[in-house]
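Retry 2 of 3 after timeout on previous attempt. Resubmitting structure tokens to design endpoint.
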């Protein structure tokens, strides 16, 4: 993959909503569907694999535990703040 998108949802409902919104938006805007999906049953960590981009949607507990950002410390990191 070329890029990871890593984000956090505050609840399983929000994590599922972020995943569904991502799927709808990528299908509409760039005519892409995920090649593979994981974690939708528990909504603790949802993975959407678009081959060149992999989206990770975590609960805060899972994100703190796995610390994916630290596994690729040599990669460039760009943080995007939201005002929701």
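Retry 2 succeeded. Sequence:
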């Amino acid at each position: 993959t070329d890029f990871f998108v890593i984000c956090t949802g505050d609840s399983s409902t929000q994590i599922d909503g972020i995943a569904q919104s991502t799927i709808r938006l990528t299908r509409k805007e760039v005519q892409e569907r995920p090649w593979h999906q994981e974690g939708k049953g528990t909504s603790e960590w949802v993975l959407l694999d678009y081959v060149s981009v992999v989206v990770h949607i975590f609960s805060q507990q899972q994100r703190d535990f796995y610390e994916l950002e630290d596994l690729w410390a040599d990669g460039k990191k760009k943080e995007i703040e939201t005002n929701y």
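Attempt log closed. The radius of gyration is 13 Å.
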